[in-house]
Amino acid sequence: MTVNMTKGQAISLQKSDGGTLTAVRMGLGWQAAPRRGLFGSRTREIDLDASAVLFADKQPVDVVFFRHLVSDDGSVKHTGDNLVGGAGSGGDDEAILVDLQRVPVHIDQIVFTVNSFTGQTFQEVRHAFCRIVDETNGQELARYTLDGGGQYTAQIMAKVHRAGSGWQMTALGNPANGRTFQDLMPSILPHL
Amino acid sequence: MTAELVRGQNHTLPQTRLEIRVSAGSPVVAGATLGDENGTVRGVEWIAHPGAHRLPGLEVSRQAAAGHRLAVDLEALPDEVHRVTVLLALPTGVGGPTRFGATAAPFVAVTGLDGTEIATFTLTGLDAESAVSALELYRRQGAWKVRAVGQGYAAGLAEMLADQGLAGAAELAASIQEAVARSLARSVAPPPPRTPEGDRVRHASGPSDPHPETAPQPQPTAHPPTVHQPTAPQSATHPPTAPQPQVPAHPSAVPQPAAPAHPPTGTGPGTPTAPAAPTAGGPINYAHPRRQHAAPPPPPPAAPPAEPGQAPQPVAGDATGWSMDERLYNQIWGMFEDLARAAAAYRSAVDFAESRMGQELDRSLSDPRNRIGGTGDRAREEARAKRDELIARAREVLDRDLAQLAAEAAVVEPALPAAYAGWDNPVWHAHRIPMELPMALRIGDLHLPERTDLRIPLLVRLPLERGIWVDSGRTASEAAAHMDTDRLRRLAMETAVLHAARLLAVYPPGEFSVHVIDPAGSAAGSLAPLVDAGVLAGPPAAGPGGVASVLAHLTRRVDLVQMAVRAGAADALPPDLDTGEQLLVVNDFPHGFDDRAVTQLRYLADEGPSVGVHLLMVADREDASAYGPVLDPLWRSLLRITPVADNHLADPWVGHAWTYEPPATPPGSRVLEQVLAAVTAARRAAGH
Question: Region (Disordered): which ranges (chain B) (predicted)?
Fold first, then answer.
């Protein structure tokens, strides 16, 4: 069952049968800008980027984004940059896979962010969403709709953090502005 | 389930957003034409080509490349379009091959956006054609299908476009070729389509990126030997606002982490069955001419399902690949990466624990309340305990990973074929000279200080892509510094002989010759096994005369083969020319070398690998210091290894310094002599 999450809501990342999750995927999708008929090459493409920042005790240790697709320890993988978006029909255009079992012991939080690299605000982007999926069975755990958002170009989506022996996810949904995750660092820190 | 199409066969497409991947032996131009319900191309605006690379629903790349990814959104095409023809053409006027017969058979795959192959097609049997319609996507009763076409045109692009009913085909073809030539002139030579990662991480390299802007060079170059991230293509449109995340400076990188070019051009299904002349340009086709690979390979051994809560039992060959060789190769690269990443996780946790303790100690020292009484001591005690606890947990995870990898290594090592096996593996005692070249050769072992007995075979692809330099310098490594010069040089030459013997033993008889330059005759002892077995092309060349004659011989060969390749006339080679691969072992460089010989050697290092002439240098860089920086490019172009264990190689993912251990025969073993005798016997049996 999919949870449509609201800001600040926390869910425990557990399978429906109560077992703990071992792998999750953060998927991001949006609709590509409509093609211009004549001079189609000048379509103003929308490029959203998903990033994940790995924190140990509030210090960033590693980051996974379009220029560094796999964290050094191999636990977090980005499936590759999508520069234009998709059909807007709910499929993931970018995805970040997290193998929770292999996350190094000192990493206690992973923050997911979305940036508009080409500068459009979320008001202009259609059918944008972000979701968390149980990678082992493809079941959607939580979904988050981005469009209809305001005049901002980035969002700090969610964080996955250690809770006891398992992991918990908190929806953050905080608007911010920036081109890449680096611009967002000051806005991320208060959420740790 | 991938459909492997043969010419004329069609297949229903399950989705409308697709990627068409093309890989070819040399750079090709990729384009597409749109046709209406009668198959007519209504005008130039219905053609996507490098000069007009984007149409609604369709994008091709703007330049010629050996690998292409065309993005197709069939739903976005105009309604009148009923057919999309994907075409390939060789660029003209840029010095490459002029006919598809001179390159490896192009391979096209229709994939989903996540990279899963829907249908593939190898365009075999092309000869004088320089343009070809590869695939057709067409509407049939509201659904889209793909058909393998493979129709070639000897008169090139113009003929092909004219065949599709386009007026002004010749002018358009000329303008396309001109656009390609312009873009080739300002781009670096496209690297071979090769991904530096094993199949385990293939999905990490952005298969869902449908943007063809990145298509011409979908993989990072395999050279130079500095930092190469096995990450995805970096988008040309992203300005470098974000610096590379902390990648440590590499001492030098493990040079050829080349996983098999995917899709395989040489061993895959539908490999061209016509034996390509070995020098006909492009990569040499080592596929056995009469052996069919069309049958799907037997399923790889899969690890049996794990007991709940326990790691699965490792199995040798538990990776993807068309043959056991390829699976083991991919498995070894997968183990290499997993070990690198497991160690990275551990080291990062330890660093963090140490730095956190440092901060906590500083804080406790600067707090005036802690100066008296036991509070300060307690705080320090706690900080240390926290560090120890975290490191212990990290170590526990590392030990779990290491144990799993060690168990995997324990089943993989005994299963390795001779080319991947160490000299101590019994497989060498029963070794028979193969009829087909293996994928790769083991040139040593790698390990990390976290667990020195967990050895990863260091495999290099065959045919060699770079020369090898066995560094006999005493400054080469710590272990070397404790050795006297003579002993080190002898050891270096013995290592080189072992490498040469391995190469001889894994090449089919008569396809590999070894030449030796030993100007002062100082390596006679080390070379004895090769000389005694009679496997060398001639006696080791001594003195300046010998050096000059061997170099002249090999230079002539490189020159002739290059000319023949450029002209596309492999038959014109003189009959006395040995077209097999050549290895030149050079001892004592630059002793006995004059300026002319040094120039020739550099020529061989630069031009040789592409036409099958390889260098194996045994040298101390100090000896050649008189040449100054002139020789730096030569040293850089070679893969540097050492005759003693040394931690100078870096992995391509994280950049750890790995300890390289050269191959060695077990003490007292006669395996080297046995193997060389088998080489001689196989040559005799084959009539060489």
Answer: 184-320, 361-384
- CA-to-CA separations, B259 to B219, B255, B329, B333, in angstroms, rounded: 12, 12, 8, 8
Q: What DSSP designation does B251 have?
A: S
Q: What is the pLDDT of residues B578-612, one digit of tens each?
A: 778 999 999 988 888 999 999 999 999 999 998 89
Backbone φ and ψ for B651, nearest 5 degrees, come out as: -80, 160
Out of A82, A92, A104, whose CB is closest to B349? A104
DSSP three-state, residue B484: coil
Q: What pLDDT is recorded for position B261?
A: 39
- Judged against a pLDDT cut of 50, whether residue B392 lies above it is answered with yes
Question: What pLDDT is attached to residue B416?
Answer: 93
Q: Per the CB < 8 Å rule, is A81 touching B231?
A: no
Interface of A with B (CB under 8 A): 35, 37, 40-41, 47, 56-57, 59, 61-63, 65-70, 72-75, 77-84, 86-87, 92-95, 102, 104-106, 117, 179-182
Strands (E), B328-450: 440-448
What's residue B574's pLDDT?
Answer: 79
> For chain B, how big is the Rg over CA atoms in Å?
28
Distance CA B366, CA B369 (A): 9
| Record: fold of B466-677 | Rossmann fold (3.40.50)
> Mean pLDDT for chain B?
79
To the nearest 10 degrees (0 to 180), the angle between helices B324-366 and B375-415 is: 170
DSSP label at B303?
A: P
Chain B interface disruption, residue of A39, A68, A84, A93, most B CBs within 10 A: A68
The closest alpha carbon to A69, from B15, B232, B602, belongs to B232
Q: Where are the domains positioned within chain A?
A: 3-31+44-191
Given this model, what pLDDT does residue B3 score?
A: 81
Q: Tell me: the pLDDT tens digits for B455-484? A: 999 999 988 988 999 998 877 667 777 778
Cβ within 8 Å, pair B75-A179: no
Helices vs. strands in chain A: H and E counts, helices first: 1, 12
Complete DSSP assignment for B597-628: HHHHHHHHHHHTGGGTEEEEEEE-GGGGGGGG
* More confident site: B315 or B478: B315
B617: CB partners within 8 A, 6+ apart? B467, B468, B469, B470, B586, B589, B638
CATH architecture label of B3-185: Sandwich (2.60)
- Residues B12-41 have a mean pLDDT of 84
Higher pLDDT, B392 or B140: B392
Nearest CA-CA distance, residue B344 and chain A, Å: 5
Specify whether domain A3-31+44-191 bears CATH 2.60.60.30: yes
- Distance between CA A130 and CA B129 in Å, rounded? 49
pTM: 0.65
pLDDT: which is higher, A35 or B680: B680
- List b or e across B507-516, with b for residues whose CB sees 16 or more CB atoms inside 10 angstroms: bbbebbbbbb
Across the interface, do B204 and A78 touch by the CB < 8 Å criterion? yes
